[in-house]
Amino acid sequence: MSDTFARMDEVERDFIRQAQVIFARAERSPVAAFSAFELSGLHFSGQSVLDLVLELLPGVELLVARQQQDERIYALQLQQGKYLLARVDRDNSRYQSLFPAPRHYPDKRYDLKLHLQEVTLKHPGAPLAALAMSLASHHQAQFRT
């Protein structure tokens, strides 16, 4: 995990080093693009609005780094045995590859919703090694369940 941070741009590394870091959940949904008429049709067809919500692909986690009023969001992804960390912020277009392709209504606009989690992974000023340890502990706990 430490080499993941070493591969990052120095400016990004410094920002994370000085920030509080927490997890976030993300989902994409086309519901806002539906008219009331279309939503009632969904209901009568036996589909639930929840069936349209897309969750992040397995192996993708979002980290939110905050320094005072500044916020940066990073996608942590395990690919071919290596962790990749990419800045995505709240830019919907940067999330395309982090979600599965929509099975229903692919022509609709899918809006991004972020849900910040309460668990602090790293406190401001703590070394990046502390974040790496928190993530390793989290992944070990996930593996056991």
What distinguishing features does this structure have?
28% helix; alpha+beta; 145 residues; elongated
> Approximately how much helix is present in the residues?
25-40%
Major β-sheet annotation: 6 strands, antiparallel
Which percent range describes the beta-strand content? Answer: 25-35%
Structural class: alpha+beta
Uncertain stretches: none
Provide mean pLDDT, rounded: 88
Query: How much is the radius of gyration in Å?
Result: 18 Å
Please characterize this protein's 3D structure.
Helices cover 28% and strands 33% of the residues. It is of the alpha+beta class and 145 residues long. It has helices at 2-6, 10-18, 36-44, 128-144, and strands at residues 20-29, 54-55, 60-67, 70-79, 82-87, 111-122. The model has no long low-confidence stretch (mean pLDDT 88). It has one domain (2-144). It has four helices and six strands.
What's this, in brief?
The protein has 145 residues and is an alpha+beta fold. It has helices at residues 2-6, 10-18, 36-44, 128-144, and strands at 20-29, 54-55, 60-67, 70-79, 82-87, 111-122.
Secondary-structure topology with pairs:
Blueprint lengths: L1 H5 L3 H9 L1 E10 L6 H9 L9 E2 L4 E8 L2 E10 L2 E6 L23 E12 L5 H17 L1
